[in-house]
């Protein structure tokens, strides 16, 4: 199965695209992912820092948390939801119907790619969406090949310019249809 897989029962296990991450990540990074998966939502940075580095003062614990997040983002760039206050895993689900079919759905939210004072600079590529919804399915043809279909919707969004960009307005709605063929040699 593709994506992040977190097994919490028995001996905990982390997999990314079918490959074990448990030996590649430090124990505190693993603990962070296990905890976020178990909670199923966002958790305050202060709580995570004090829970994982309880032996340290608050500033050192938060510094260690930033370092752990930096390393995790290299492995899981699209799967962590991080802002100044909270950390969570991007919601999504995959359901293996049988040995051939897998269904997927997901949701992503961010704080916006650009600031309203910079709308003039982003007229050609309005990266203003704060939400994305995804759905897809995969058909495993055999042990080496897979056909993937997907859909992504970034809902209608408008950003009104402020400051140096006053008087400008960006409006965008994005729909993507994806078709892919995956072959493993």
| Total strand segments | 11
The fraction of residues in strands falls at 35-45%
Widest sheet, order of strands: 7-8-9-10-11
When the domains are counted, the total is: 2
| Main pleated sheet | 5 strands, antiparallel
**Radius of gyration, taken over Cα atoms and rounded to an integer in Å:** 20 Å
Give me the strand/helix succession. EEEHEHHEEEEEEE
Low-confidence stretches: none
Span of the ends, CA to CA: 17 Å
Determine the fraction of residues in helical runs and give it as a percent range.
10-25%
Describe the protein in words:
By secondary structure, this protein is of the alpha+beta class. It folds into two domains: about 5-90, Arc Repressor Mutant, subunit A; about 90-185, no CATH class. About 20% of the residues lie in helices and about 40% in strands. The protein is built from three helices and eleven strands. The strands form three sheets. The protein has a five-stranded antiparallel β-sheet, with no helix packed on it. The chain has a three-stranded antiparallel β-sheet with strand order 1-2-3, covered by helices on one side. β9 and β10 (about 145-160) form a beta hairpin. About 15% of the residues are buried.
Helix-strand blueprint:
Blueprint: E1 4-7, E2 13-16, E3 19-20, H1 27-39, E4 43-44, H2 45-52, H3 58-75, E5 80-82, E6 86-89, E7 92-96, E8 101-109, E9 131-140, E10 145-160, E11 169-183
Antiparallel strand pairs: 1-2, 2-3, 4-6, 5-6, 7-8, 8-9, 9-10, 10-11
């Amino acid at each position: 199965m593709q994506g992040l897989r977190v097994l919490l029962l028995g001996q905990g296990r982390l997999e990314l695209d079918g490959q074990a991450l448990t030996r590649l990540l430090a124990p505190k990074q693993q603990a962070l992912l296990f905890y976020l998966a178990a909670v199923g939502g966002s958790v305050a940075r202060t709580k995570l820092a004090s829970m994982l580095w309880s032996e340290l003062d608050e500033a050192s614990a938060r510094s260690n948390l930033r370092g752990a997040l930096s390393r995790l983002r290299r492995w899981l760039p699209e799967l962590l939801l991080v802002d100044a206050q909270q950390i969570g895993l991007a919601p999504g689900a995959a359901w293996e119907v049988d040995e051939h079919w897998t269904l997927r759905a997901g949701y992503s939210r961010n704080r916006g790619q650009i600031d309203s004072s910079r709308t003039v600079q982003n007229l050609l590529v309005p990266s203003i969406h704060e939400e994305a919804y995804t759905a897809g399915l995969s058909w495993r043809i055999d042990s080496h090949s897979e056909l993937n279909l997907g859909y992504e919707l970034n809902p209608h969004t408008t950003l009104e310019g402020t400051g140096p960009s006053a008087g400008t307005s960006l409006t965008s709605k994005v729909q993507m249809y994806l078709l892919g063929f995956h072959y493993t040699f």
